[in-house]
Amino acid sequence: MAKYIKYGISATIMFGIVTYGSYKYHQIRSFEEEYYKNSNRKRQFLFNIHQNLAILYDKSVDSYEDLSKINQYRKILLSYAQGFVLETAIGTSRNLKFYPPGVKVLGIDWSSNMLEAAMQKSVNHISYSYKIDDTENLTFKDNVFDTVVDTFGLEYYVNPDKALKEMKRVCKKDGLILILASGQSLYQGLNFFLNYKTPYTVCNYGFFPNRNWEEFIKEEDFEILKKERKINGTVYMYVLRNKK
């Protein structure tokens, strides 16, 4: 009897594994059809997600950022900001309180709902304003800003390489580009997990957790003044000088 019970349990476990695997396979295929294979809908697909996330975004990330010291990394990075600052993909303006006194910040986002949430926050130590704009197609002239900031925005772009080029274009020669981004780990086991969950995170939260930012930064030929990787290498911090 015990033998049959053992076989029954094994069969049940195997059935569960196969069923879950089939579910994940169809989820990935559905994601590919919705996102990868329909290029005309990529941007609208992500835009709709970002609009819907705005209301609960801060509550959804507050605890994680406190526990993982993300706010500490924001403060360190933004201490380098100077002059006229463009913050791309500003979202709900989580960086506002970390800017050093004296800077002037213009925050942009393509999501009007995100900017509406950002406008509910206020500080007195800096001058700041907001504008709807798209980092992949910025409406500014060349060489406008002393500093360009992007914190956890790159992983939300359809074309992050294009966004980086635009950030470089509008930043003055020898200006600073400050980046915090989440992406590939230093460990292959963790990268396997990040790749595995990408369809879910894109479909539900509109971001890609598995991009290798070292490769993207290298492509743009920035001068790297500071580079750190935190949390098993999944958080990238860059202070870059804009070579032109």
Comma- or semicolon-separated keywords:
methyltransferase, 45% helix, Methyltransf_11, 20% strand, 7 strands, Ubiquinone/menaquinone biosynthesis methyltransferase family protein, Rossmann fold, 244 residues, alpha/beta
Describe this structure in words.
This protein has helices at 2-36, 42-53, 57-67, 70-78, 112-118, 160-170, 188-205, 213-219, and strands spanning 84-87, 104-109, 127-132, 145-151, 171-182, 223-230, 235-241. By secondary structure, it is of the alpha/beta class. The protein folds into two domains: 1-37; 42-241, Vaccinia Virus protein VP39 (Rossmann fold). A seven-stranded mixed sheet has the order 3-2-1-4-5-7-6. Helix 1 crosses helix 7 (188-205) and helix 2 crosses helix 7. Keywords: Methyltransferase, Transferase, Ubiquinone. GO terms for molecular function: S-adenosylmethionine-dependent methyltransferase activity. Pfam families: Methyltransf_11. Residues 87-179 form the Methyltransferase type domain.
Short description:
With 244 residues, the protein is an alpha/beta fold. Helix content is 45%, strand content 20%. It is globular and about 40 Å long.
Write the CATH fold name of the largest domain. Rossmann fold
Mean pLDDT: 86
Q: What structural class is derived from the secondary structure elements?
A: alpha/beta
Fourth CATH level, the homologous superfamily of the largest domain: Vaccinia Virus protein VP39
What is the CATH level 1 assignment of the largest domain?
Answer: Alpha Beta
Computed over alpha carbons, the radius of gyration is 21 Å
Strand order of the largest sheet: 3-2-1-4-5-7-6
Shape descriptor reads: globular
Q: Classify the helix fraction into a percent range.
A: 40-55%
Task: Give a short account of the largest sheet.
Answer: 7 strands, mixed
SSE arrangement, N to C: HHHHEEHEEHEHHEE
Treating each run of at least 4 consecutive H or I residues as one helix, how many helices? 8
What's the total number of strands? 7
Portion in beta strands: 15-25%
